[in-house]
Design brief:
Number of helices: 12
CATH architecture of the largest domain: 3-Layer(aba) Sandwich
Radius of gyration: 21 Å
Shape: globular
């Protein structure tokens, strides 16, 4: 393959796999550089010794974990019960199963997403030959008159909302979320709320409150980022009871159940430490400190960074002498073994943008940024 020939696979995987195979610093994939809670690891080592956790789990999730999820979300969703919840193989499966359910129901999906968009959203549309419409979100302002006009003109029937976002860590305001809820019922538009970074906000938590009687809303989250266990693949979906019934029927045949011992370990940990444990609160602060450190160092190197409210990532415009994010990322890894993701993976117009994963320990951030500084000075 030529040096600058783009692969057909995800650019996140492409650059991250370089580090996994050849070594280096991984600022590409959303993998935390932080260890999971010690208590969770201790619980897991004991859980796997039990005889009752090595067979299939209930398809919707083990009962204790489902009940703990329900108990946590009572404050956000009126009348939530276990029938509103299904535990799945990470947020990715939750999003994909919801998509399949809507595809089955509506036959043809016309989707609206906010550019720069997370890779799953528009690639699902490509896989299933559906139409994806990009709303320019670079200025982090939403014109709801324009949104409604697009919905009516293009017959949009699905919207993706990612808050805090990936790659651009914007948090939608309470006013904006309420307007989206109104749009969902007004135009019968389904909305998938991807909230995997919800607890990793820097100042104010994202707004969350809606009636589960609204059949057009789906809420997706996971324990991957909450507990720094992305390899465990334990997530969940919350929606209207009838929606969950139909999605569970799909899950029975394509996923069956999530790994039983891992569900049991998470449930026992939450039971002892709480859903938003001391670990989560400390992680939130650590993430904010790592973000600010990386942001300040990048700005010293003349990267331009918009206001970011939370999440793992720094969405940045390259210093003015660089015009091609893909070339920048390839050359950076080849010369300094630091992996990042080109912005064009998330938005066609973002040729001169890149994404950095800031969820790393401070020492690694300083090491990586020093190598990036050397690369820029030598280019």
């Amino acid at each position: 393959m030529e040096k600058y020939q783009k692969p057909e696979c995800s650019l996140i995987s492409f650059f991250s796999n370089k580090v996994k195979k050849y070594g280096g610093i991984n600022f590409a994939q959303g993998v935390p550089g932080f260890s999971p809670p010690n208590m969770l690891l201790q619980i897991t080592s004991e859980i796997v010794k039990r005889k009752d956790v090595h067979q299939y789990a209930p398809a919707s999730g083990i009962f204790k974990l489902v009940d703990l999820i329900r108990s946590h979300y009572i404050q956000y969703f009126n009348n939530i019960n276990e029938e509103n919840i299904i535990v799945l193989h990470g947020a990715t499966e939750a999003i994909c199963l919801t998509y399949l359910f809507l595809k089955q129901k509506l036959k043809k999906l016309k989707i609206l997403g906010f550019e720069p968009v997370y890779e799953i959203y528009d690639n699902l549309a490509k896989i299933y030959n559906d139409k994806f419409y990009f709303y320019d979100y670079f200025n982090s302002e939403i014109d709801f008159d324009k949104i409604e006009s697009i919905i009516q003109k293009e017959k949009i029937n699905l919207i993706f909302i990612n808050s805090p976002g990936n790659p651009f860590g914007k948090i939608f305001s309470e006013k904006e979320m309420l307007q989206f809820y109104n749009i969902s019922t007004k135009y019968k538009v389904y909305i998938i709320i991807d909230a995997v970074y919800r607890e990793l906000y820097f100042n104010k938590p994202p707004f969350l409150q809606f009636d589960l009687q609204n059949e057009y809303l789906f809420y997706v989250n996971s324990f991957s980022k909450l507990l720094s266990i992305t390899g465990w693949r334990v997530g969940y979906l919350i929606s209207n009871v009838e929606n969950i019934k139909k999605i569970k029927a799909i899950h029975d045949y394509v996923g069956l159940c999530v790994v039983h011992p891992l569900q049991a370990a998470i449930a026992e940990y939450i039971e002892k430490e709480g859903f938003i444990s001391k670990y989560v609160i400390e992680l939130r602060q650590k993430m904010k400190e790592s973000f600010l450190l990386m942001k300040n160092k990048l700005e010293e190197l003349r990267f331009k960074i918009p206001k970011i409210d939370g999440g793992y990532f720094i969405w940045a415009e390259l210093p003015s002498k660089f015009k091609n994010g893909f070339k920048f990322a390839v050359d950076l890894y080849e010369t300094k073994k630091v992996a990042i993701v080109p912005g064009e993976h998330f938005a066609k117009k973002a040729k001169n943008y890149v994404r950095f994963n800031a969820a790393r320990e401070k020492e690694e951030i300083l090491q990586g940024l020093e190598l990036i500084k050397q690369f820029i000075n030598n280019s």
